[in-house]
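Anyone up for a design puzzle?
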């Protein structure tokens, strides 16, 4: 587990008789994609001091909860590769991170997902949890997975299915046939002159989601 401010919550929720908690920190030699954004670090004693403070705090928290944790330092040049390779070696099911001070949650999730794609086979199914300081956890399933669909997406898919299956010839069609056809057509369209138009629509949809998220937070 990559830790920032989430350990207390993980300790509280985890039955450590069934699942081990590993607290990991990456000792970075080049920090292109580090959480801090620093260029490079030459003095290893800085890491040693950080690790000592981190693990002292971790042990104190774990002792207060009465639960065991394992501590791990991983030498690395890329923090996201380090997290994913460690999760793979430990056969982890969930990775919990604090939010980077240089990235938003979606960017952090994307870079972690890219690192998952670079893993050798077999790649584990992993759930990434990113925790900003405001306590609103964001979850990302890494690798191929069933997508979370909005209600309007489900309704569009169902309407298309109804249109197509109204023809008796296609009465045996399932919703996944509709999705597969749509994906094949989109893949083809992205190689044509319509690419810019389609990506503009996607960009508009993304901004609409961000606006909706901000509005929901303001109401909370």
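Challenge accepted. My sequence:
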């Amino acid at each position: 587990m990559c830790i920032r401010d989430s350990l207390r919550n993980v300790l509280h929720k985890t039955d450590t008789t069934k699942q081990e908690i590993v607290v990991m920190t990456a000792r970075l030699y080049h920090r292109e994609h580090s959480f801090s954004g620093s260029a490079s670090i030459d003095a290893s004693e800085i890491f040693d001091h950080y690790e000592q403070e981190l693990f002292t705090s971790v042990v104190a928290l774990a002792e207060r909860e009465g639960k065991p944790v394992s501590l791990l330092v991983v030498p690395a040049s890329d923090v996201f590769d380090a997290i994913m390779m460690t999760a793979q070696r430990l056969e982890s099911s969930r990775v919990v991170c604090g939010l980077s001070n240089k990235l938003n949650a979606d960017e952090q999730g994307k870079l972690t997902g890219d690192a998952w794609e670079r893993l050798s086979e077999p790649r584990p199914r992993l759930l990434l949890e990113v925790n900003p300081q405001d306590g609103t956890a964001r979850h990302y399933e890494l690798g191929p997975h069933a997508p979370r669909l909005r209600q309007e997406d489900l309704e569009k898919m169902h309407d298309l299915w109804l249109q197509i299956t109204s023809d008796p010839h296609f009465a045996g069609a399932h919703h996944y046939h509709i999705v597969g056809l749509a994906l094949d057509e989109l893949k083809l369209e992205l190689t044509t002159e319509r690419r810019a138009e389609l990506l503009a629509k996607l960009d508009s949809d993304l901004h609409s989601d961000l606006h909706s998220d901000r509005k929901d937070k303001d109401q909370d």
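A detail worth pointing out: The longest helix spans residues 195-219.
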